[in-house]
Amino acid sequence: MRRLLMHSPIAVAVMWIIAYLFIILFPLLVLLFHPAPTGRGFWIEFSVALGFIGLAMMALQFVLAARVNRIESSYGIDILIQFHRYTFIVAFVMVVVHPVILFIVQPETLQLLNFPEAPWRARMAVVGTIAFLVMVVTTIWRKQLKIPYEPWRAIHSILAVVAVGLGFGHAVGVGNYLSLFWKILLWSVMMAIALWLIIYVRLVKPWLMTKRPYIVEAVTPERGDVWTLTLRPLGHDGFTFHPGQFSWLTLNITPLSMREHPFSMSSSGDRADQIQFGIKALGDFTKRIKDVKPGTKAYLDGPYGVFTTERYWDSAGFVLIAGGVGITPIYSILLTASERKDDRPFLLIYAAPSWEDITYRKSLEALKSQLDLTIVYVLRKADENWGGETGYVDKDLLQRHIPIHRGSRQYFICAAPAMMDAVERALFELDVPVTNVHMEHFNLA
Ligand SMILES: Cc1cc2nc3c(=O)[nH]c(=O)nc-3n(C[C@H](O)[C@H](O)[C@H](O)COP(=O)(O)OP(=O)(O)OC[C@H]3O[C@@H](n4cnc5c(N)ncnc54)[C@H](O)[C@@H]3O)c2cc1C
């Protein structure tokens, strides 16, 4: 029983949340040990505590962004990124409220904003907070400001280091709580770990990836403006993965350039010697896939993700719901299941613009003879001869196809955001337990 609890995804996720709270609160508690300043009143102490918690939360953001496999495998990358975003906003609010309280309680501290005259510790706080503000604005309104993803990511990392470094410099400069060597040491270790993580993610890990290159074997067109990119490991064994997982792909440039894109593997999870991706031509990078020549070098950081049937080995069967290119992880799930001779029932509900746009149509039809697989295609545009489903995947459509014993299946959805939201709501209304519903979001940033 204890073993089961230790390994249950919910228990592990709760353990990480407790660890998170401990890490942001422990350094604060340590600061309260002797000799803590006295007699400054509640509001000043409260403001200082907000500043320190904000700084600890900012330092922890580096851990959340570091793709630590053990954390990622408890939540999934999309949940982690959401958490990273929300805690980032909370940390920002704390960092801003910290001086605002001081200015209200001790109006004379307002002169610390007089930049040319102010001491270094105050200047560091001002510049650090501005760096933080720029991060918030460029993150929340990146698309409206038309900042492409890659430059944004590079700027985001630099500003994060600047904001946290200056925040820490400010705390040491003020000194009230960080006057003792061992307290400075503790906080320095925390900051050094954060800095090491960013160095590891931006330099060490990409450098390790250069030792494990892949080579493009083929680029083949599929229906629905999707291209299958086939990679072979070069001089190493590649990797196996849980079907439904994804990797970060770098193509034709060194991984140190940090211009990588996430894609779900579309091949069988058991074939380490050949890894495939189904890539839809949508933007700058993906539109160039069709021109990639065999022999081009590629690098992979993966596998990642919790969108996999593997975690539900005891499920009686699966309902897989895909929209457009969202079929890629689901195709890998079906392919792997057929190779493993999985005899459980699979129901695939697959929405596509038209019959001609159904990616992997022929292969999916072939899988029906190898698996207990039922496919319901849902076409947005269909001619009069089409006898199947049309329109959108909604509650009525789902009700017609999903098993009556809703809780007996695990449900996997991968589609455009609007379809995912609609399907999630419909499944909820159809009494599918929320814990049985799993989603993969392709739009992380
Ligand atoms: C877990 C996951 C799995 C995915 N699997 C697939 C798949 O199997 N097939 C497929 O076709 N697409 C998949 N995608 C989406 C794919 O990553 C984006 O379409 C692609 O990165 C867009 O790049 P672009 O330069 O062509 O488009 P752009 O027009 O430059 O970008 C469009 C949007 O894609 C996102 N994006 C761009 N670059 C990145 C990046 N480096 N990292 C993260 N997001 C980025 C941003 O939100 C951006 O606004 C997946 C995404 C995720 C998160």
How would you describe the overall organization of this protein?
This protein is α/β, with parallel strands linked by helices and 445 residues long. The protein has 3 domains: 2-208, no CATH class; 214-304, Elongation Factor Tu (Ef-tu), domain 3; 314-440, Rossmann fold (3-Layer(aba) Sandwich). 46% of the residues lie in helices and 16% in strands. The protein has 12 helices and 12 strands. The protein has helices at 2-7, 9-32, 42-64, 69-75, 77-105, 120-140, 149-174, 181-210, 327-339, 361-367, 395-401, 417-429, and strands at residues 214-222, 226-233, 246-251, 261-264, 275-280, 297-304, 318-323, 345-352, 372-379, 389-390, 410-414, 437-439. The chain has a 6-stranded antiparallel sheet. Strand 11, helix 12 and strand 12 (437-439) form a beta-alpha-beta unit. Helix 2 packs across helix 3, helix 6 runs antiparallel to helix 7 and helix 7 packs antiparallel against helix 8. The chain is elongated. The two termini are 39 Å apart. Mean pLDDT is 89; it is low at 1-6. Residues 149, 246, 260-264, 277-280, 282-286, 325, 328, 440, 442-445 line the site of flavin-adenine dinucleotide.
Concise overview:
This protein has 445 residues and is an alpha/beta fold. The protein has helices at residues 2-7, 9-32, 42-64, 69-75, 77-105, 120-140, 149-174, 181-210, 327-339, 361-367, 395-401, 417-429; strands at residues 214-222, 226-233, 246-251, 261-264, 275-280, 297-304, 318-323, 345-352, 372-379, 389-390, 410-414, 437-439.
